[in-house]
Specification:
About 50% of the residues lie in helices and about 15% in strands. The protein has ten helices and ten strands. The strands form three sheets. It has a four-stranded mixed sheet. A four-stranded antiparallel sheet has the order 2-3-7-6, covered by helices on one side. Helix 3 (about 75-85) packs antiparallel against helix 4 (about 90-110).
Length: about 375
């Protein structure tokens, strides 16, 4: 099992249980996922066979207690995200959606009947979920959503569309957000309901080893019992996004480490002008910058995780970590590719694959600009959104 970057000996700050979980996931990714990821990225396919294995390891719904969930801490969850994204952002994205965007709203806003019906199946991976909030014309401003729900007897009728939905076409159920009498409400829409379709998004240049889809609701009738009873208002889906953003802040570190470690190994082995390119000043400057940014991101994520486990983290803390860590990871991926030279444009090495993925990671669950304004609003007391 490979050793990860740990320049400041942060390994000492984790408990034995946290290290054991991290190492288990690290070994799993290296043995079961990494050998095939380049092929899946090239083909534009997601390895569905990996899903039951994630469930068997207890990684789906890791943060939650009961209903078949493993009951881990937020730091546990962060370390899992880091190791999964060391493999590929598509793998971490699958787990993030299943855990933070599907199981979290069920845990937080669902009825007891809904929890008992869906959560154990989601935890094992026997059911796959997706999260429908973003619309074709309403990305950063979900308050403008046009998807509507209308009460009709003992059911609701949904009409509208969602866009850029991870897991959409492979999902057995969707957590869908729609306006009901002018207020945002949440619904559980099962696959196969008349009028519900999920066409897959093709020709992607990023997150190619992940399923992305549209969700279309053409007068889809949903039983009243499938409405999330405690989800009232836009704050409900935004709280789900905050959970996903937390995992992204950790996951980006994994992608950054994969790129840095590959670049370091390559620079030590690649000889030009009679010596390894790692011995040239310009190469060392790049490597040191990458290491510095990874170390800062690791410290930021760990502190955020401890705050979150103590109940002291706020959404602006998460926003700062998301924008910092993803931004650093994207630049690290680009620098790492440059150290690989022409070889870096191939799938033999991971930096350009990670760089392509991180372009999406920098956009979804709130763009760099949106998170900048969230933090800006907190420190100034003034909103720049409107």
């Amino acid at each position: 099992m490979g050793k990860r970057t740990d320049f400041y000996k942060l390994d000492q700050e984790f408990t034995e249980e946290e290290r054991r979980l991290r190492d288990t996931v690290r070994s799993f990714v290296e043995k079961e996922y990494l050998p095939d990821i380049a092929g899946h990225f090239e083909a534009g396919t997601f390895p569905l066979a990996i899903v039951p294995q994630l469930g068997k390891l207890g990684l789906l719904g890791l943060k939650y207690e009961g209903y078949g969930c493993a009951g881990g801490s937020n730091v546990d969850y962060g370390l899992v995200c880091q190791e999964l994204e060391w493999g590929d952002s598509g793998l971490r994205s699958f787990m993030s959606v299943q855990t933070s965007l599907v199981m979290h709203p069920l845990i937080t806003f669902g009825s007891e009947e809904q929890k008992e019906k869906y959560l154990p199946e989601l935890a094992t991976g026997r059911l796959i979920g997706c999260f429908g909030l973003t619309e074709p014309d309403h990305g950063s401003d979900p308050s403008g959503m046009t998807t509507r729900a209308v009460r009709d007897g003992d059911s609701y009728v949904l009409r509208g569309a969602k866009m850029w939905i991870t897991n959409g076409s492979i999902a057995d159920l969707a957590i869908v957000w729609a306006k009901l009498d002018g207020e945002v409400a949440g619904f559980i829409v099962e696959k196969g309901r008349p009028g519900f379709s999920a066409p897959e998004t093709k020709r992607k240049l990023s997150l190619r080893a992940s399923v992305t889809s549209e969700l279309v609701f053409d007068d889809v009738r949903v039983p009243a019992a499938q409405r999330l009873p405690d989800a009232n208002g836009l704050a409900a889906p935004l709280s789900c996004l905050n959970e996903a953003r937390y995992g992204i802040a950790w996951g980006a570190i994994g992608a950054a480490m994969a790129c840095y470690e590959s670049a370091l190994d390559y620079a030590r082995e690649r000889t030009q002008f009679g010596r390894p390119i790692a011995g040239f000043q310009l190469s060392q400057e790049k490597l040191v910058w990458m290491l510095s940014e990874i170390t800062k991101a690791q410290l930021l994520a760990l502190r955020l995780g401890r705050l979150k486990d103590a109940g002291d983290a706020r959404h602006w803390h998460v926003s700062l970590a998301k924008l910092n860590n993803v931004g650093a990871a994207l630049e690290i991926a680009r620098l790492a590719r440059s150290l690989h030279g022409a070889s870096g444009i191939t799938l033999e090495y991971p930096p350009l694959r990670h760089a392509a993925n991180l372009e999406s990671v920098a956009t979804y669950e709130g763009t760099h600009e949106i998170h900048t304004l969230i933090v800006g609003r907190e420190i100034t007391g003034l909103s720049a959104f409107r």
